[in-house]
Amino acid sequence: MKTIIRVCVTALGLWACAHTARDDLPVGARYVNMGSSFAAGSGAGPPAPGSPARCYQSSVNYAHLLAARQGFTLNDVSCGGATSAHILNAWNELPAQIDAVTSDTRLVTITIGGNDVAYVGNLVASSCEQGESIRAAGLVLPCPLPFEVPEAAYATLESNLREIARQIAARAPDARVIFIQYIALVPETQCAQSRFTEAEAAALRITAARLAEITRRAAAETGATVLEMDEISAGHTPCDSDPWSAGLPRDYDGSAGAAWHPNARGMAVIADQLVQTLTR
User: Fold this and answer.
1) pLDDT tens for residues 53-112?
2) Which residues does 279 contact at the CB level (< 8 Å), separation at least 6?
3) Lowest-confidence range among 158-162, 233-237, 256-260?
4) N or C: which end of the chain has fewer CB within 10 A?
5) What is the pLDDT of residues 21-45, one digit of tens each?
6) Cβ–Cβ under 8 Å, residues 260 and 248
7) Which residue has the higher pLDDT, 24 or 220?
């Protein structure tokens, strides 16, 4: 018999719902994966069959690996380039990602926010030189200029993360929600794979820390779980001996994954960590 005890409170305008017990996720449980390219696994492996071409969704992203391993029924709506607004609202021809969550959904995983605060864009801009061409998603593009991020972008992201968790709970009361932190990307010591100045590296670390803290706070306020991949992946940046992500060395051809994104090994590690999180 299923036993679920749910405690919900509303205080100071914040909505929270904590599950104190759940039965295990059974084989066939409906699983929704949402987020940006870090959830889609862009560049990590072959495209996921049937996924929108412009989303660059990989068949070996952590969601596909987890679903195959646990026997879940996966609906992966993650998409490269997505922001938190694209989870809550339609994005051109793509419906709002949140619409994939139905009353029978039992698990939702989310990696989002890097595009809201130009984290990935500034990783790329800081690791190439003006006039240099870079390869991304089969295209040859110029090195971008750094992005100025307004303070309001962080506040909007946090508000959207809370709204995402609130809507999931309203649509699927029995679903477990896991926010997955971005893996560690900025090396302590720079190398040919990063090419940051120390000032650039310091600024990027601040962005990463703020993104992680916003995610952690929003999850705590809404009863969601956080998978602390930022901490777990420490020592596995593109400059380390066992990298879980690809940096952007000069003339990089993308063969080890999309620049500044989890590679196939990184995706496999995240899937392993998700299994452990679900069985704790």
Assistant:
1) 999 999 999 999 999 999 999 999 999 999 999 999 999 999 999 999 999 999 999 999
2) none
3) 256-260
4) N
5) 345 799 999 999 999 999 999 999 9
6) yes
7) 220
Question: Which alpha helices (H) appear in 73-191, and where do they start and end?
Answer: 84-88, 119-126, 151-171
- Choose among 159, 179, 187: nearest CA to 249: 187
Structure token digits, residue 50: 């049937």
Number of domains into which the chain is organized: 1
Full domain range(s) for residue 85: 5-279
Q: What is the CATH number of the domain that holds 86?
A: 3.40.50.1110
153, 155, 164, 199 from 150: Cα distances, Å: 6, 10, 22, 19
SS3 167: helix
Environment class of residue 180 by beta-carbon count within 10 Å: exposed (0-12), middle (13-18) or buried (19+)?
Answer: buried
